[in-house]
Structure formats: structure tokens, C-alpha cells
Amino acid sequence: MNAVSFIPLLLALTLSPLLPGVINRTKAFFAGRHGQPLLQNYFDLWKLLQKGAVYSRTTTWIFRAGPMIGLAAALTAALLMPLGKCPALLAFPADFLLFAGLLGLMRFFTVVAALDTGSSFEGMGASREVFFSALTEPALFIALATLVRQTGQLSLSTMFGQVSNAHWLHSGPVLGLVVLALMIVLLAENSRIPVDDPNTHLELTMIHEVMVLDHSGPDFAFILYTAALKLWMLGALLLGVVLPFSGGNPWLNLAMALGGMFGLAVVIGVVESVMARLRLLVVPQLLIGAGAVATVALILTLR
Amino acid sequence: MTWLLFAMAILLLGAMAVLLLSRPDRNVSWLGAGSVVIASVLGCVPVIHVLSGGSVEPVRVPWSVPFGEFFIELDSLTAWFLFPTLLLSALSAIYGVGYLRSWQGRRSLGPIWFFYCLLVLGMMLVLLARNAVLFLIAWELMALASFFLVTFEHERESVREAGWIYFVATHLGTAFLLAFFLLLARDTGSMDFTVWAEKGVQAQGLASILFLLAIIGFGTKAGFMPLHVWLPEAHPAAPSHVSALMSGVMIKTGIYGLLRALTFLGAPPMWWGWGLIAIGLSSGVLGVLFALAQHDLKRLLAYHSVENIGIIALGLGAGLLGMSTGSSMLIVLGFGGGLLHVVNHALFKGLLFLGAGAVLHGTGTLEIDHLGGLLKRMPWTAATFLIGAVAISGLPPLNGFVSEFLIFLGAFKGGVSAGGAIAVPLFALVAGLALIGGLAAACFTKAFGIVFLGEPRSEQVSHAHEVDWTMRLPMLILAAGCVLIGLFAPVAVRSLEMVLKGITKLQPVVVTESLATATSPLTWIMMGAVAFLALLTALVLLRRGLLARRRVETDVTWGCGYAQPTSRMQYTASSFAQPLTDLFGPLLGTKKKISSPRGIFPAEAALKTTTPDISSEEMYRPLFGRINEWLSQLRWVQHGKVQLYVLYIAVTLIVLLVWELR
What are the respective helix, strand and coil percentages of chain A, to the nearest 5? Predict the structure, then answer.
């Protein structure tokens, strides 16, 4: 463990709130607007941390604990996520299982905190959240299994360290399919178009946003920060496969990874600008499709 | 061994005592529960001794039963299963004291404690027996005792029906076991488990037939899909502390039997592993899907037992694949994960059933859609139920995650560079276990969220009360167990070493080494869990600091500006699960009865959904109907005249005698 291995963690902690800013600016560009400042998310976090809070009479300690457990899980998960070729602080065989477990824990408490309000809107969002995540979970695991099979490595850090140009040349289709599956997982898990629209103003159509309607003040700041971290980490997961080059020098690798991360944010922004969200009934097909794509990739590695 | 004999004697004495002393106006609960607790404490002494590497002299006493011998032995495999059995028996007994108090005066409690003691005794004997006849007698003792416990409230029609289904199912299973033991005895010329384990079955064909018999016979008890039909009937019908015991440990005797059978059968061919993984996948996925569609809390939990038995089968299947290919890593992780899940499931499923019992005790209903808001009224039950729910969903930092992690890790390690024949089932396991995990989280956010959170959905629930300490204490201990195994996973796994040495036929050194390397990630996981808890503490302090001098108000839940919400407007369990149950509709066969609102001022509207068990509806009901029709031709034999029945017996004996003298 050296100083360099702290850097992916520090970058995740400091720069993740920037990603939604980049996405928003990209969308504004497509819409011909000027858009909100790049640092809007930081301003929001700062403002929310200054505020008091309002709680529903229906709620209990579960509602107050939800955001804290979610953020603690996200921060722990950040210890496990490498950035491009730069290994994570904690790397051990099958560390991705702990990563996925922590995301599951975060989701569990977001959902029960939503149910704690007794609101039917939040119940609806909670129901959709568990529905979609039950379908993304197999896709994520099959994609990871394909990567394990392809690189022969069991830890995220060594796996991404191993992915090289040769892999892409030799088995490009496999990695391409994995990237596609992981991209759908990323969009679904982070409630982006085409699964969920973060800009919607109608409670009935929201998924993630509606679950956190009743949170306010510092609690809501925790939730916003957790969401940014989650986007960053799943982005890093995708990036590890997409970025096969190693610059040879850790600093160069980091610079490339950062460039890739913000490039990814631009891509998400473009996706959100050029397509509408899918009807809720069609979303399961997309997610099962992601699972199917990952399965095809896995089968290709079994030759 | 003296300790165990003492424990069994105390159970027997306790059983007799409660039966003799019981009167409707007398509370014999403390006597019954006391003997179970003392027996468990005594029994745990040799169990812990064996699990920490010691050994215990077996007991052999000649017995007048033909081919029978009172031969009991405590090896590491038995000890591993005996530990959760004794623990949960004692805790459920303490819980039962409080739980049964409401029946006191109306009903004599002697019989229920009598059968409870016998059930514990039966389970102990099943695990300890090393003679086939003794094993079958113990098996039957366990089945009958639990049958009488299930039918405790026999004045209710549904309970009697459930009891019969259980009775028939368990005896059909026993029939297969009888065939299994007879074939083995014929092949080896002995009824002795130790002889069977030494000799092993040499003929590959016979071994495969025996494997199938064991899967069906023991699988009926364990609840493999589609042999599970008795579980969702019997568990909800039984008193809750009995459900906890049956679901937590009694069905595990099926897993124990299967593992014990595997030690007799020699080297497994590849398809056994495939088969067990297929069974695990179907039990796991269908179990959790049916659980999602249930409206009754205990029925939901019963289907989750099917799911968890599926997860255990996945682990054992992976282990079998490892045995076929000689991969010590896969053996250790597959069997290790499966065995650890046996204990983990006993802890969290016991906890959840006790929690469900507390809900029933406090509110009088288990209908999820009538409950709600119980966390404020029953804080202890709610907190422990939450721990159980997170654990059963396989989420860190609790124990369910650890055992699922081991199974996943085995599959990934085994599949990383293996050929298709190994990699395909292992990756199917990965995908299936991931789906199961997602669905289980959906199901338990529903169970916890709808039952304990929000506002009460019916009048009776708003007067719910917390249960007394005899019921709270067992739940707290089980919850603590879930947390401890989750946080100290490496320690829990180290105690598996003796068991794995016993069942895998690997060199002891190899087991020690592979276990050490294979489970090294658990140390990191422990660090992850510690980091999580530290961060959580920091955040709690941060939030407290931030809100300390600020305005914190309370108001109504945001309802888009609507200020008069009623509890009937909340999302219900059915609506919560509806997207998933609709998507998997073809597998579930949910029946919907809708009377939709009509006219401008609709007076009433109703929606009723039921999800009957597909295998009992599509498979067993028609099958048994047909058999019943066919056998009704023989009804004239059964006329109710006892003297003629005696004659039948005499005639049969004479025919057999002639046959033998021929």
C-alpha cells in the first residue's frame, strides 16, 4: 500500500459530485441553454448541510438511519473501487461481491426508509426500485463473471490492471458486450434515462427521486452525495473495461482515467439528450436484455 | 457422550413429567422449557469439544430390535448440525413459555410440551444415530412429534388439513429412505453407518440409484422444490416457536441426511453436482418468487425456507462438482458455504419466525396487508426482525452475506479457468444466486416495510403491544448471533475445518491449507465491516452535531399537497410486489379476482389475489386424486371391524412364515 492507492478514493470523494454537473451541462448544451453551474451539486450539498430538517409524524428511526447507512455503505464501497489502472485501497479475491453487497445494503435502507413514510408515492418508487434492481443484479454478476473468466483475475483491481489492448483485439466482441451490459446496469442503478428521469417533476413517474421526497436538510445532503458516489463507482467499473491502455506511469494512468470518467459523464448526458425514457412496462425488457447480452458474452468465453 | 445421554434422559423425563403433571389450570411451561434448556446446555458441552478438535467415545448397546443396535456417535458433522439444533430448541422453548401463556386455562399445555421435548429428542437421535434402524425410528419420532405440534390448534379446519399434508409428505419421504437403507444394507450386509462409510458403494449404477433415493427421501424433509409442498402448509399452521424450530433446524436434518448419505456413496460422478445445482436453482428462485406473492407473513417465511434450502443445495452441488474434479478449493468453499448457511439460516429464520409469532401475539393477525406501523408499538420485535431481514437478504455486514460469499467465491474460483462442463453449472449458480439475492431483498423490504413501518392498516393493529421478556430475549440472542457471525466470519469458518475433514475424504492437511487460502478474503471482509461500522458511527455523530442547534420540525408526510392522508392510502404488500409477481406470472399462476368500480359514484370495488402452490395444484392434486379414485376399489377391505383387522395381520404373518419355510 503506497500513497498512490489512496488517490482513487480521494478522487471519488472529492470529484464525484462533479459528474452530475457535467451531465447537466451536456444536456443544457443539447437543449441550447446555458445550464446550471458545473459546481451546482457542491453548492446544493453545502446549502443542505446548513439547514434544519422536517420529519413526517409517521416516520421512525429507520427513516433517519436510512441516509446514514446508505452513505456509510457507499463510502465503504469506495474503498474497493479502483480507478482505471490505479488499484483500490482494498483489493482481495472476489472483492466485487462485497461491493455489490454494499450497494444492496444501501438500496435496502433507501427502500425501507421510503416505506417508513407511509406515502403511496414513496411506496410506488420503492416497489419499482426493488423490481428493477432484482433484474439488474444478475446482469451485473454475469458481466463480472465474464470479466473474471476473461482476465483470470478475481479482484477488481487486478482485473482492470490486466485488461489490455490485446484483450480487445483478441476478444473484442466479448468485452464489447460486457461494456454494453454494464452501461445498462449503470443507467438503471443510477436512475438515469432511459430507465428513470432525474428531471421529472411528476411523483407518479419517478423512481429514485420519489423515494427520497420526504428527506430534508443534512439527510438529503447525505442522499445526494451517496447518489454521486454511486454514479462515480459504477462509472469506474465500466471504465476499467473500456480503458485498456496503461501509460506506464501511475500519474498518466490517473489522468487518463479522470478524462475517461468525465467523458463517460458526457456520454450519459448525450444519451439523456437524444432519447426519451422508456415506458415503465418496457424497462424490464431492457434489463433482462442486459442480462441476456452479458450471458452471450459469458458463453463466448466458455469456448 | 455421557453428557448427551444425560441430556436425552432429561428430555425424556421432562416429557413424561409435563404429561403427568399437566392440568388445564396449571402452567407446566416452565417445566417443559426448563428440561429443554438444561438438556441443550448439557448437550452443547461435547458438541463444542468435538468442534474444537476433540473426540468423543461412541456408545454401542445391543438392542432386541432385529438388525437394530443402539449405536450413537458424535462426529464433527453431527456436532455441526447439533449445535444450532440445541441452541434454537432452547431459545424457542423459552419463547414458547410466553407464547403459550394466552392458551393457559383454555387448554392443557401438557401435550404440546410433551411433543416438543420428544421433537428435540428425535432430532438429537437422528443426528447421532449410526444404525439404520435406530435412525429410522428417530426419524419417525421426529416426524410424529412435529405432526402433533403442527396440529396443536386442531379445532381449525385449515390446521388439520395442513397436518395431513405434512403427515403424508413426510411418510412418502420415509418410504424412499426405507428403500435407500434396504438397498445399502443388501449391498454391504450391514446396518451400520460406520461400515457403510468404510466400504462405500463400489457399483456406479447402484450408487446413482441410491443418490436419487436420498435426494427424494431427504429432500422431502429439507423442502427441495417440488417436494416442498408441506412446508408452506405446516409452518404457518404450527405455533410460532414450533415453526421456528421446524424451519430453522428440523428441515436441516434432511440436509444432514443427504450429507451423511454422500459419505456412503463413493466418488460422485459429474451429474450429481449438476443435479444438485439444478435443484438448488429451482428451489431458490421459485421459493423466493412464491414468497413474494404471499399475503401471510408465516407462509412467506415458509417459502423462504425453500429458497434457503436451495442456497444450501447450491453450495453442496458446487462441492460435489469439486469432488468429481478433485478441486480441493471448490470442495472446501462449496461444502463450507453450504454448511455455514445451515447454521446461519437456523439463526435468522428462527429469529424471523419468532418475530412473526410476536406480531401474531401482539396484533392477532399475520395478514401483511392488515398490519403496519408496528415499529412504534413493538420496537424490540421490529429491530430484531430488521436484523433478520437484512441477514436473510444476504447483505453485509451480517451472517447471510458470509455464507453466500463463500458459495459465490467457490463458483468464481472454480469457474475461472475450468472447462465448460464445470464452468456452465458454476456460472448458472452465480447468475441464479444473484437473482435470488435481488428477489430476497425485494421480499424482505416488503415484509419489514409493510408490517413494521408506515401507519396501521387496521383497527386491531393500532392497539398492538410489545411482547414480554421471555419472548424478547430469544429474539435478541438470535439477532446477536447474526451480527457476531457476520462480523467474526473468519472465526466461524475456522470451526468448519473439523467438519470438512470428516466429510470430504481429502487429506486433513489439504483441507487446512485450502480452507486457509480460500477463506482469506474473509479477513478483508471483516475489515470492510469494521470500516462500515466506523463510518456509520462517524456519520451518526456528524448528523447529530449538524442538527444540534437547528430547527427540527415534524409534519405530515408529503402527499402532493394533500393534507388528510389515511392509512388506507398506503402502498400494500400486494401492490409492492405486483410488478415482480406480474413479470413472473407464468411461473406463479396467481389468480386475480377483480370487481372494478362501476358508474359515476362507484359503491364498492374489490381485488383479491391468491397464489396457490403450483406444484401442489398442477402435480400432486391431480396425481393423488387419480390414485384415490383407483384405490377406492379396495375400500371394501376397510370396514372398521377391528377383529377382522387382527385377522389380516395373522394371515399376513402366516403367509410370510410359509414363504420363509418354503
Answer: 70, 0, 25
B394 contacts A101? CB cut-off 8 A: yes
What residues of chain A lie within 8 A of the CB of B461, using their CB?
Answer: none
Coil, strand, or helix at residue A201?
coil
List the beta bridge partners of residue B69. B62
Residue of B nearest to A128 (CA): B579
H or E, element range at B324:
helix B297-325
Q: What percent of chain B has pLDDT over 90?
A: 64
DSSP string, B116-185: HHHHHHHHHHHHHB-BHHHHHHHHHHHHHHHHHHHGGGTTSHHHHHHHHHHHHHHHHHHHHHHHHHHHHH
d(CA A285, CA B464): 43
Residues of B whose CB is below 8 A from A59: 557
| ipTM exceeding the 0.85 mark | yes
HSE-CB at B566 with a 13 A cutoff on CA atoms is 3
Smallest CA–CA separation between A99 and chain B, in Å? 10
**Do residue B434 and residue A137 have CB atoms under 8 angstroms apart?**
yes
Cell of B283: 428451489
Q: Note whether B557 and A56 are within 8 A (CB).
A: yes
Q: Is the dihedral of CA A24, A28, A30, A34 positive or negative?
A: negative
- What is the percent of chain A where pLDDT is above 70? 99
Tens digit of pLDDT for each residue in B607-657?
888 888 888 888 888 888 898 899 888 888 888 888 989 999 999 999 999
The owner of cell 438503471 is A188
Total beta-carbon pairs less than 8 A apart between chain A and chain B: 252
Q: Which residues of A touch B424 (CB under 8 A)?
A: 302
Cβ contact (<8 Å) for A131 and B439? no
Q: Which residue of B has its CA nearest to A118?
A: B454
Q: Is B536 close to A68, i.e. CB distance below 8 A?
A: yes
Nearest chain A CA: its distance from B556 CA (Å): 5
Which residue type, as a one-letter code, is found at position B342?
V
3-state secondary structure of B257: helix
Please choose, from the candidates B300, B288, B293, B290, the residue with its C-alpha nearest in 3D space to the C-alpha of residue B247: B300
- Which of A203, A198, A216 is CA-nearest to residue A269? A198
Per-residue pLDDT, B463: 87
pLDDT tens-digit series, residues B233-288: 999 999 999 999 999 999 999 999 999 999 998 888 999 999 999 999 999 999 99
Separation CA B217–CA B176 (nearest Å): 5
- Chain B residues whose CB is inside 8 A of the A217 CB are 546-547, 550
Return the pLDDT at B508: 85
Residue A169: burial class (beta carbons within 10 Å; 0-12, 13-18, 19+):
exposed
Chain A residues with CB under 8 Å of B435 CB are 134, 137-138
- Give the pLDDT score at B493: 87
pLDDT digits (tens, 9 = 90+) for B442-486: 999 999 999 999 999 888 888 888 999 999 999 999 999 999 999
A268: distance to nearest CA of chain B, Å?
25
E strands present in chain A: 53-56
Question: Which residue is it, cell 458470509?
Answer: B402
C-alpha cell at B456: 396501521
Alpha-carbon gap: B363 to the closest alpha carbon of chain A (Å): 19
In DSSP terms, B60 is beta-bridged to B71
Q: Check whether A1 has a pLDDT greater than 70.
A: no
Which one of A54, A107, A133 has the shortest CB-CB distance to B555? A54
Expressed in percent and rounded to 5, the helix, strand and coil fractions of chain B are: 75, 5, 20
Q: Per-domain residue ranges for chain B?
A: 267-515, 616-661
Contact B536 A149 (CB under 8 A): no
